[in-house]
Amino acid sequence: MILQTNIYEFLDYAIIGILGLMNFLVFILLIVVGVSNFKKALGPDCKKGFSRFFVAFLVFLMFSTFMDFAYSLTYKIFYIQTVENEFYSVGYFNYIVNTIWGITYGLGVLNKLIAFLLLFSAMEIKLFNKKSKWKFGILTVILLGSIFIMEIVKITLRFTIGGIGSAITTLTVGVLSSLDYIILAIAIRYLLKRTGKENESLKVYTKPIAIGVLFLFNFNSIIQILQYIRGFIDYFFNINSYYDYDELLYWINIGLFFLTSLLFIIGIILLAVGAIKTMSVPLTFSKKKGVKGAPRQAVNKKQNTCPSCNTPLPPGAEFCTNCGNHL
């Protein structure tokens, strides 16, 4: 029994540690991508538009992950003071925990939605080469807006009605929000694939970003749906005094948490790699017929004569040696 208690105690601190690690990882990536923005030398026609958006995305994501870490740490501190040291009453403990949850969860959701709005907007503006014709941007606003509204309803119901109504709302909002992210991720991967077909060089960044999206949004959202279902089952069993599967559900929850954390870490690292790679590949596109959507640098390598004066030019020339026309 003592050994089992020690294992649970260890896992509690392990969860707090992993949440802190995730927050620290986002901070490190923020530094790395930020420094790259200042120091990385750009090639011809290369820009830092997407990477700058990505820095802003990491700032808000860092605040979001910090809120998760802060709540878990605060909960553990008050739990020790209430249950082990009997410093606080159970009623006061529940009041404090619910209040802290409302603040940290609300701020966490807000920062996360802003972060994803920045990320998806950057993809629409900088990466997709107008492939979606702003349809993805509209889809982003609709789905993220619906998530924001659902989260407000969820927080409100937890503090007003509570009980089974709040549990059902949490399950519904969690599942629908996760499905929204899956839809957005599918759209992103489709548009990145189409963009990558423009030129092989673009796959330098489209590939890691696409894989990162797969881990961070597709796989992660599926696991989170399972977490919400597990949470509802656990609540339903508890209110009906059915405790036979408590330990099983606990270990399922631990496993799902570690899996989502791993998926988050892999996904965010791949996205950061892709963001840095965008600074080494031209993100500006030619409007010339026959090469529409191809990077301007790639077009120049095939340009053998000046379109202005027809002077023969060597492959890779960036301007005409006769009239000075920029290619």
From TrEMBL:
Residues 306-327 form the Zinc-ribbon domain. InterPro entries: Zinc_ribbon_dom (IPR026870). The keyword Membrane applies. Keywords: Membrane, Transmembrane, Transmembrane helix. Signal peptide: none annotated. It comes from the Archaea. The chain crosses the membrane at residues 13-38, 50-72, 92-122, 134-153, 159-188, 209-229, 249-273. The keyword Ribosomal protein does not apply. This is Zinc ribbon domain-containing protein.
